[in-house]
Design a protein that fits this description.
Length: 223
Amino acid sequence: MTEQRVIVDALNIDYPAARVVNSLSFTLGNERLALVGESGSGKSMSARALMGLVRKPGIVSANRLNVLGNDLLTLSTRRWQALRGNGIAMVLQDPRYALNPAKNVAAQLDEALTLHQRLPRAERRARIHDIIRAVGLNEHVLQRYPGELSGGMGQRVMIAIALINNPQVLIADEPTSALDARLRNQILELLVQQSEERQMAMLLISHDLPLVAEHCDRVLVMY
């Protein structure tokens, strides 16, 4: 049995009008777990709770909500800043909305790195070049802006940003739904490759059951 990097026990997420997640429980070790379900079942909201991104008037409660030994229900703002992006990171669905259109790729990677680590400029530059190659992109991409990238390239850049600090847990929230079939397979294969090379746990949120069956160790269904 692998170490439990994420423990969720009876997670509830409530808004004034409705409860959007009801008594969700699961654990995640060094493995790939798929979270599947129809639209509106609370998959993405559950991921946001693990990232500390449920905003008021939303209320998060649970018997236990733990990531890498951190109790998320009592975590201070300072500890959240240390954990988010460093211990646990997230890849969102569409790079058109997740990337900053006013900054080139190199600047966004450097920002993600300097938020969590104090490194000399030369070492940061080396890390940036290493990660952009690791996700299958040419270094010329570093000087481009998000509007100059194809959908597949943009998604690889988002993966690079998520991985640059070597998180132990990665949440991939519908990372391929905005891509065509060929690119979907490429991006999932990249995520699997990186999770194996980095010994990184991955929570994959998807509605694509064939991809989930091929790439994940376990499946959790929300309804």
